[in-house]
UniProtKB/TrEMBL annotation:
The Sulfotransferase domain, residue ranges: 33-281
A Pfam cross-reference name: Sulfotransfer_1
InterPro entries noted in UniProt: P-loop_NTPase, Sulfotransferase_dom
Name of this protein: Sulfotransferase 1C2
Domain of life: Eukaryota
Keyword terms of this UniProt record: Transferase
Similarity section: Belongs to the sulfotransferase 1 family.
Molecular function GO terms recorded: sulfotransferase activity
Gene behind this protein: LOC106152212
SUPFAM superfamilies cross-referenced by the UniProt entry: P-loop containing nucleoside triphosphate hydrolases
Length: 288
């Protein structure tokens, strides 16, 4: 169990996403030029948020002020409804970039009404599970999970973790948005393989034409190492993270699952994956 846990439409959430916050998310006022970055936890969302943010704001005074991550790319549905916080994030300079972990049907109603752009990030679910396990261990809002990897693996496969089943989560997004020109699907593995290409892809999607030196600078500033060390992008003051247990910017590579999955877990996973998503049409690279 995690603090304040409850289920919303079958999806496990904690006290950091209480019912009134989820309702406020649904009713959140968007502008046409907002961009929402949605992802299942541990899919490379922090990285993508920073990429989108820099594509839109590189070189501006707002960007140079080095505002902390929580204000440059705020998580819409964070915490119980706090009018002041909502007002603050409503007033950040446009175009605004928002984070969400909501399942597709919990997204703001205005997303579709106003044709707001959205970026969705996929990551291979074996690495997601491993990354999530370490995050569960270090994060007090996820109970600082004291169990073993194998116990976490069972929870993950059962969808009994915060934000629910990876399988349901990504399939619902894919089904809902795969043909929507306002939604860009990105893959963590592609971003690792072709970082500059991903910057260009995002810029193209958002209608920005970036000079080569700007692309290069964005790549430099969003490298794993730079983001890990950077004041603005690291979660520098998050009191419920214990980075002595596991750092927030942990490894940032593809294939760490091979250091965790047993042969049996891997076979079990491949069988479930084949049953559940093989036909979906999105294409996950497991780094094999
Ligand atoms: P690992 O735990 O495998 O290292 P999210 O931001 O969605 O929570 O995803 C976290 C994962 O993205 C972590 O994976 C983290 O290290 C990785 N990550 C964060 N910033 C990154 C970057 N600039 N480049 C590559 N990976 C990054």
């Amino acid at each position: 169990t995690i603090p304040g846990q409850y289920y919303l439409d079958g999806v496990l959430l904690g006290s950091y996403n209480p019912p009134d916050g989820m309702k406020a998310l649904r009713e959140f006022d968007l502008f046409e030029d907002d961009c929402i970055v949605a992802a299942y936890p541990k899919s490379g969302q922090t990285w993508t948020l920073e990429l989108v943010y820099l594509v839109l704001h590189h070189g501006t005074a707002y960007e140079r002020e080095n505002t902390a991550r929580d204000m440059r790319t705020p998580w819409i549905e964070w915490g119980p409804v706090d009018e002041e916080r909502l007002r603050n994030i409503s007033n950040i300079p446009r175009p605004r970039v928002f984070k969400t972990h909501a399942i597709a049907k919990h997204l703001p109603v205005q997303l579709r009404e106003k044709n707001v752009k959205m970026v969705f990030v996929f990551r291979n679910p074996k690495d997601v599970a491993v990354s999530y396990y370490h995050f569960y261990r270090m994060n007090a809002v996820l109970s600082r999970f004291p169990g073993t990897w194998s116990q976490f693996y069972e929870m993950f496969m059962a969808g009994n973790v915060a934000h629910g089943s990876w399988f349901d989560y990504v399939q619902e997004y894919w089904r809902e948005f795969k043909d929507d020109k306002n939604v860009l699907f990105l893959y963590y593995e592609d971003m690792v393989k072709d970082h500059a290409g991903s910057v260009r892809k995002i810029a193209n999607f958002l209608g920005r034409n970036l000079r080569d030196d700007v692309v290069e600078d964005i790549v430099k500033r969003t490298s794993f190492k730079t983001m890990k060390d950077n004041f603005a992008t690291r979660a520098h003051k998050i009191p419920f993270f214990d980075e002595n247990i596991s750092p927030f910017f942990r490894k940032g590579n593809v294939g760490d699952w091979k250091n965790h999955f047993t042969v049996r877990q891997n076979e079990d996973f491949d069988r479930v994956y084949a049953e559940k998503v093989a036909e979906s049409g999105f294409c996950i690279d497991f780094g094999e």
